[in-house]
Design a protein that fits this description.
With about 475 residues, this protein is an alpha/beta fold. It has 16 helices and 11 strands. Helix 1 runs antiparallel to helix 3, helix 9 runs parallel beside helix 10 and helix 15 packs parallel to helix 16. About 40% of the residues are buried. The structure holds 2-acetamido-2-deoxy-beta-D-glucopyranose (NAG) (2 copies). Keywords: Hydrolase, Metal-binding, Signal.
């Protein structure tokens, strides 16, 4: 102990270089003989400092590092070993030795030499695949957040339980401007590849927030990526009916938490039209829902104002679906809200009146500056109370600088941080379903920022859904 301390002092005072000798009671020890740790064997003096020597000595002192004595070191040295053999057994050449020694000795000695001189990477056995079973950021088939997959629509899997389902709705023939959202689900999955977990910001950093302790990717719940619902690109009526039946099939699974009655579904759009079918299925399971609609557009447009008028077929689209949701009774018309609105009305006075009839109150994009986040959160919580809530996030609620890959961009929106901060602030609401829509990968940047934002929104949905079951 005392001598080791001396060793440390020597190192500190002389600032010795890699490989220097230290005295201890058992004789000289070479620092580079300490058991390989970290990157010593590869990079050694490239990164060594006097502090790292000191650290190693501390580990050695605590018995956490083995130090090879000179003799042991030499025992592993092929040249030394051969010399010893040649001296002691009087063989004049190595091959003479090989010929005369037993094969066992040869194997042991070869092995020792190999251990000393082999490449520093320790490769597993050629037939060992145990480390290839991991589903990590690059391994396995891609699902959202690397959650498990099974075909949730196949009657053969009806008995499998689902608490939260994530499902893709690849549909974009209800869009009025830029198409491409049919590729949204895959892009969102791709952006989720790196994975998430517990974070310092979930729960908005409030110390007594249950949400701050949630890790959606490590729970006992059954969270399943159901894949995409096949939606035909040839007829919107059939496509939307396929979506409805797909959502319904998922809702018909049992959850592991039976008190919840039915799985909660997170749908990845697709253009915003898809929300109508998600709402229909949710309404059939949970009754009238309070919709929190994060969007730059009202989307309650009367079809007479937007799209419709010539054929009935034209009347259902991504700007009118909330009109139909209200008309068909899916919405609790005393508790719905728009958040982040800023896009122009088409027929201002009528649109505002009709929007109220559909059950919506409005928090505009600029209310973030006018009243602030906490007030927004308070107003939302007060309005929805304990009612079943469905959150629909049109990614165009974000400013185009944060989400350029979308169907109908509007400037002056929230940042990703502001959006996530509002959603996470809703801890405690009864969130039964959610979606994120209008992610159009062909218009995204090549760093996928729009998809990445959508991925984070889903991560926040998961937090809100899971925290209710803790
Ligand atoms: C998952 O949670 C368990 C228990 O809560 C914990 O012991 C474990 O370390 C967690 N795993 C990861 C990867 O965070
Ligand atoms: C609608 O929401 C309000 C506010 O949360 C709630 O009091 C009411 O019971 C809900 N109505 C229905 C039909 O669910």
């Amino acid at each position: 102990m005392k001598l080791l301390t001396t060793g440390i002092n020597i190192i500190l005072s002389l600032n010795l270089v890699y490989g220097s000798w230290i005295d201890d009671e058992n004789g000289a020890v070479k620092i580079d003989q300490v058991e390989e740790s970290f990157i010593d064997s590869i990079y050694g003096d490239l990164v060594q400092t006097s502090e790292s020597y000191e650290y190693k000595l501390k580990l050695y002192n605590e018995g956490k590092l083995k130090v090879y004595k000179e003799e042991e070191y030499k025992e592993n040295d092929l040249e030394f070993m051969l010399n010893q053999l040649l001296e002691s057994q009087e063989y004049s050449t190595f091959s003479e030795y090989l010929e005369s020694s037993s094969s066992v000795n040869y194997a042991i000695n070869s092995h020792n030499a190999f251990r000393k001189y082999k490449s520093k990477a320790n490769y597993p056995d050629d037939d060992d695949t145990s480390d290839l079973l991991t589903i990590d950021k690059f391994g396995g088939i891609l699902t959202f957040g690397h959650f498990k997959y099974f075909n949730c629509f196949n009657p053969k899997s009806n008995s499998k339980k689902i608490d939260i389902a994530i499902v893709g709705a690849p549909f974009d023939t209800g869009v009025s401007f830029r198409p491409g959202a049919r590729f949204g689900p895959e892009a969102i999955r791709q952006a989720s590849r790196r994975g998430f977990g517990r974070t310092p910001v979930r729960g908005n950093g409030k110390p007594n927030s249950k949400l701050s302790k949630v890790d959606p990717y490590n729970t006992s719940l059954s969270i399943i990526d159901c894949g995409n619902i096949p939606m035909t690109p040839y007829d919107n009526r059939i496509a939307l009916n396929q979506l409805y039946r797909g959502e319904r099939a998922i809702h018909n699974h049992e959850p592991t938490i039976s008190a919840n009655g039915s799985p909660k579904i997170i749908t990845m759009g697709g253009d915003h039209t898809i929300t109508l079918m998600a709402l229909k299925s949710a309404y059939e399971k949970y009754g009238k829902v309070s919709v929190l609609h994060f969007d730059s557009h009202i989307d309650t447009w009367n079809p007479k104002i937007l799209g419709g008028g010539i054929t009935n077929y034209m009347s259902l689209n991504h700007g009118t679906f909330l009109h139909y949701a209200a008309e068909n009774g899916y919405l609790n018309t005393s508790s719905c809200m728009h958040l982040g609105l800023r896009a122009p009305y088409i027929s201002a006075e009528y649109d505002i009146k009709h929007d109220h009839e559909c059950g919506f109150e409005t928090i505009t994009a600029r209310d973030f500056d006018n009243v602030g986040r906490d007030e927004i959160i308070e107003r939302v919580k007060e309005r929805v109370g304990n009612s079943p809530v469905y959150i629909s996030v049109d990614i165009d609620v974000l400013d185009p600088s944060n989400a350029p890959g979308t169907g109908t961009m509007e400037v002056g929106g929230w940042t990703t941080r502001e959006l996530l901060s509002v959603i996470d602030g809703l801890e405690g609401i009864n969130l039964i379903g959610a979606d994120v829509v209008e992610v159009s990968p062909p218009f995204d940047t090549n760093s996928e920022i729009t998809s990445l934002a959508a991925t984070a929104v889903i991560d926040s949905f998961l937090g809100l859904m899971i925290v209710q079951d803790l």
